[in-house]
Amino acid sequence: MPAMKRKLNEHDVPEGSPTDNVPEEAPKESPKDTNETPASTFASFGLEPRLLRGIRDQRWSSPTLVQAKAIPLALEGKDILARSGTGTGKTAAYLLPILHQIVRRKQRETSALVLVPTKELALQVTKLAQALAAHCGQDVRVQNIAGKESDVVQRAKLADLPHIVVATPARASTNVNNGALSLKNLAHLVVDEGDLVMGYGFEEDLNNIAKTMPKGVQIFLMSATLNTELDTLKGLFCNDPVILALDDPEKNAQLVKQYVIPCGEDEKFLLIYAMFLLKLIKGKTIIFVGDVDRSYRVKLFLEQFGIKSCVLNSELPLTSRLHIVEEFNKNVYDILIASDETEILGTRKTEETETSKPRKKAKLSDKDSGVSRGIDFLNVSCVLNFDMPENYKSYFHRIGRTARAGKSGTAISFLIPKEKYRRHKPTTFAGCEKDEEVLKKIEKHQKEGQKIENYGFDMKRLEPFRYRFADALRAVTKIAIREARIKELRQELLKSEKLSRYFEENPAALSHLRHDQNLNHPARIQAHLKHVPDYLLPGGRKNTQDLGFVGMDKTRPDRFKKGKGKRIVRNRQGKIDPLKTFNARGRGKK
């Protein structure tokens, strides 16, 4: 029996919305950039009681704006295109209506397909779906096929007919082609982070899925931006969706205090040293750098002063990246150094090798993905742009990692003026050449009342620290960076591959894995740099005792006694050996 594509009541008769606060003819666009959440609770949506218990387990008191707007419309069976940033609850906004329909339908079939651009996002969606359906037993089964399992393993997973399948478009398309994934009973299709999905070059896979998909499927298109690529996606799957333009990443910046510090290339390291050692930055911090090499340079530099940090980059195995994010969210690490290249959390390169058919080159000119998008980081106090991003969109996505859920946050950006670019070759980074141009675009796109202020950092007060910072920076050579990358990669591969089965059986052992170990080989760690002498602190030492003048060669009472200060060495014949005899006073006979 084919699955019904729209919500039915217990007598298999189509019914209206379970909520009364949404008009029958919903507007095609929500009120422009409104922040007022409609007064509602999850119970008012008419969701299944078992799902409400799952919601209580998550400790969600009330729906977010996107949930309050999207869930009633989704329960009516409408197609939805929603713009909402990471951390606003859009995953639950589409999962709850889908789970509600699956529980009510009570049929063993694959009725929902969730497409995401990265494996990390796939795991995040899977965990949330399983948590919300924890009290539903076997009525809801979720499978994630975005991982690196073999075709045999994935075929076995899909043969069990899970109700919800979470995958990247490439994986889903491959399994549709080989017959492992059947879409004939599909009732719901979700494309999460739709602009990234198109940006990663999944267009061919999406076309293949659209051709195989039956008619009448409910569509959810979720994205952080509404752009032309999303229009293409909308035309591919749905003609007349309800558009919810709820959350603008640039608008999220209103709760973020934004600062910029113009400085020289080497002064970036001096500033970051002073900020962390003097505790000018408090709380959890994400440091964004331009590439993988820069991430290890910053980590090794901070290690010189005993400052612990962990690195998140595209070289690390998937399981290590997921564990780092999870531990950072649990406050195990305070400093996360993220290399925000386009593929740090995207796995486009891997996906291309996993499918045999050729595909178009991914459009990665708009480098606003990576750590700045998709993954949800919790309770971040400060975002530090060690290297400025290449465009203003990436800037707003980066600073969107802080000031979440109504909390305030700080964003500090280091800016290299043109006259200071390439003045210190050991620390030069090519991506900083257009910092001033990017800053102008960022200022142009700021919302009313928001601006980037000059931090007003007095660099003269850091002069006493220069010799210490320069000593540490010299120790971080290119060889040290290369060795550090190899060392950490070897460690993480060992943890992720050889011990993966052990950790599945003993999950508590994961707590003993740390990602902020010293990677000091062959960089020389200098223990004295950990401590800041009081005389170097701004204002100097306050409780200093005046000892007066102390002479360099204070006269001892016995200094001029006869024989003192002389060392006489005689040879075998008893004669004084002039070459081995030393007169400390420097006068008289030798």
From TrEMBL:
Its main location: nucleus. Its EC number is 3.6.4.13. GO terms for cellular component: cytosol; nucleus. Residues 25-35 have a biased composition (Basic and acidic residues). Residues 1-43, 348-369 are annotated as: Disordered. It catalyses: ATP + H2O = ADP + phosphate + H(+). GO terms for molecular function: ATP binding; hydrolase activity; RNA binding; RNA helicase activity. A motif (Q motif) lies at residues 40-68. GO terms for biological process: gene expression; ribosome biogenesis. Signal peptide: none annotated. It is found in: Nucleus. ATP-binding RNA helicase involved in the biogenesis of 60S ribosomal subunits and is required for the normal formation of 25S and 5.8S rRNAs. This is RNA helicase. It comes from Amniculicola lignicola CBS 123094.
